[in-house]
């Protein structure tokens, strides 16, 4: 199904996951260090990378940054503990999803398929426009009235998510789950802060909203300004 690169220093885990993923039809290559993983990611151009964060030579987050500088390959990070702040930081740094150890090959396979499905969907259905706002998912460009908006990756994802559901109230919980990929826990404040930055970039405020309308106690919706 997919060419998966597994970067994991624990031999037992690496062997079990390699076998489990192969049993499910994936081609798997693996490395036990970050630097060798980077080399393989560039040489073999895998469809997806599964990255353990506790590696002997480099911090996994550091490897993710190095990888992101040269490649947009989807990355699922494997963390040893469910440390929410760390997970949010990694997702902001460009990880596409995460799994918390211990996890099974079946669970990893489900995540792999979900991430690849999202990528495929984003390739086919890539642009949305509301009013003078236009977002292109493929090039990750956003413009307002023809002027490019300078958005961070997270701001872009959040705006794209809202713009794909015009007029629909989206809860902060849903944004944390779908944009931050934090399925439980997570702080509403994270969403509030990004929302306020986004508003500033769109030239509006909570007091004088245009596109981003807060629905008190429920969430936020993106509308075409009247
Ligand atoms: Ca490890």
CATH level 3 topology of the largest domain: Rossmann fold
Strand order of the largest sheet: 2-1-3-4-5
CATH evolutionary superfamily of the largest domain: Response regulator
Query: Which percent band covers the strand fraction?
Result: 15-25%
Number of helices, counting only DSSP H or I runs of 4 residues or more:
8
Distance between the ends? 47 Å
Instruction: Quote the average pLDDT.
Output: 90
Number of domains: 2
Order of helices and strands: EHEHEHEHEHEEEEHHHEE
By CATH reckoning, the class of the largest domain would read: Alpha Beta
Which ligands appear in the coordinates?
calcium ion
Could you give a short account of the major beta sheet? Answer: 5 strands, parallel
Q: Helix- and strand-based class?
A: alpha/beta
Tell the overall outline: elongated
Quickly describe the structure.
This protein is an alpha/beta fold and 226 residues long. The chain is built from 8 helices and 11 strands.
Task: Give an overview in words.
This protein has 226 residues and is of the alpha/beta class. The protein folds into two domains: 3-123, Response regulator (Rossmann fold, 3-Layer(aba) Sandwich), CATH 3.40.50.2300; 125-222, Winged helix-like DNA-binding domain superfamily/Winged helix DNA-binding domain (Arc Repressor Mutant, subunit A). The chain has helices at 11-23, 34-44, 60-70, 84-92, 105-124, 153-163, 172-178, 188-201; strands at 3-7, 27-31, 48-52, 75-79, 97-100, 127-130, 133-136, 141-144, 147-148, 212-215, 219-222. Strands 2-1-3-4-5 form a five-stranded parallel β-sheet, with helices on both faces. A four-stranded antiparallel β-sheet has the order 6-7-8-9, covered by helices on one side. The longest helix is centred in the middle third of the chain and has 20 residues, at 105-124. The mean pLDDT is 90. The site of calcium ion has 5 residues, from loops.
């Amino acid at each position: 199904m997919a060419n998966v690169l597994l970067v994991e220093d624990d031999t037992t885990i690496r062997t079990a996951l390699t076998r489990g993923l192969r049993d499910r039809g994936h081609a798997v290559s693996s490395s036990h260090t970050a630097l060798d993983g980077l080399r393989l990611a560039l040489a073999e151009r895998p469809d997806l990378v599964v990255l353990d964060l506790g590696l002997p030579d480099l911090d996994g987050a550091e490897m993710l940054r190095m990888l992101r500088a040269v490649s947009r390959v989807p990355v699922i990070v494997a963390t040893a503990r469910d440390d929410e702040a760390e997970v949010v930081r990694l997702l902001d740094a460009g990880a596409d999803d995460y799994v918390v150890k211990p996890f099974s090959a079946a669970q990893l396979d489900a995540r792999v398929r979900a991430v690849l499905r999202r990528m495929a969907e984003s390739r086919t259905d890539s642009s949305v426009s509301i009013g003078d706002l236009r977002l292109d998912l493929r090039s990750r460009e956003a413009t307002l009235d023809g002027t490019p908006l300078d958005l961070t990756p997270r701001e872009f994802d959040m705006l794209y998510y809202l713009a794909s559901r015009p007029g629909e109230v989206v809860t902060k919980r849903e944004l944390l789950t779908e944009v931050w990929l934090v399925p439980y826990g997570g702080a509403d404040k994270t969403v509030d802060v990004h929302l306020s930055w986004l508003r500033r970039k769109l030239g509006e405020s909570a007091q004088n909203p245009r596109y981003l309308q807060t629905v008190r106690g429920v969430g936020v919706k993106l509308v075409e300004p009247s």
